[in-house]
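Risk register update: the risk of archive-format incompatibility is retired. Evidence:
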Amino acid sequence: MDVRMKALRKLAPGPGNVELVETQEPKPREGEVLIRVRAAGVCGTDLHIFHGLFPKVRPPVTLGHEFCGEVLELGAGVKGWGLGERVTVESAAGFCGDCFHCLEGQTQRCEERLAFGYARDGGFAPLAVARADALHRLPEHVSFQEGALCEPLACATHAVLERSSLDLGHTALVAGPGPIGLLVAQVAKAAGALVILVGAASDRERLQMGLGLGARHCLVAGDPENQEILKELTKGKGVDVAFECSGSVSSVSSCVEWVRKGGQVVQVGLLGKEANLDLDQLTYREVELKGCFAHNHGSWRKAIELLQRREVELLPLVSGIYPLEQWREPFALSERHQGLKYLLKSGA
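Archived output:
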């Protein structure tokens, strides 16, 4: 029987073409699980898809790659999961499993990697289907609101715990106090680092939030005293690791300037354009510049462990929760950089 539900879908390529429409309810295939979606986060990628700026999108497709919910039905062969269990879902909907990167556990590098929300139907709907091995149980004390933010948290654990050499007692600079930057700052603090958060003058409210979430110091980009402040905080050597989370070209250059000799710059933010960088500075000062993309299964395990130990706070990042039918409002607020993270909830 063809049972219908309403989902937020990208119907065709190009700008716009996103509507809340009726579509068929999904059914789990072998190895899959049907999830009743309880909360889903609005991400910058969703905005890019809306504006037709995300070339990987395969319409028609249901948006939403940050979601969580309850197990509703098990596909054939699925073991180890029970109906009603509270779960969060990895955003990778599939990968080859056989290439060099997959065999190394670095599935985020797989050429055949597909994600919810652009290549497979995602979580902006009452129901979604995912691989059973992409599910993670939510700790008992973790709400669905927090569960919907596990995907960006996994991005942060990948950046700090897998792409950097940050260690106990190190100094970490986080440039860009957006959702990812604030999560990176928390993970860095949990790793034992002294965290310095940097943002624009317009980010003062976010910087203040960062102090409440564990950053030791906050700097406003462009302040001529920043260099001296950093020298004082790091005893003249510079920060051990800089995480660039803003996607600003000038911020990348500042991170290279502020990191110590032999230190690391981890590029987390997407610039969306080419950037001029003084590579001689990397050479002379032996600075390591590392890219960082998405997450893998290990990143998710680490994220859940941090939540289990209550070492990160996610609820302060939630700026509002909207019914799926009112999706345009959180999209518009996110577009204007008002608030941090907005969640959508289906009425189902």
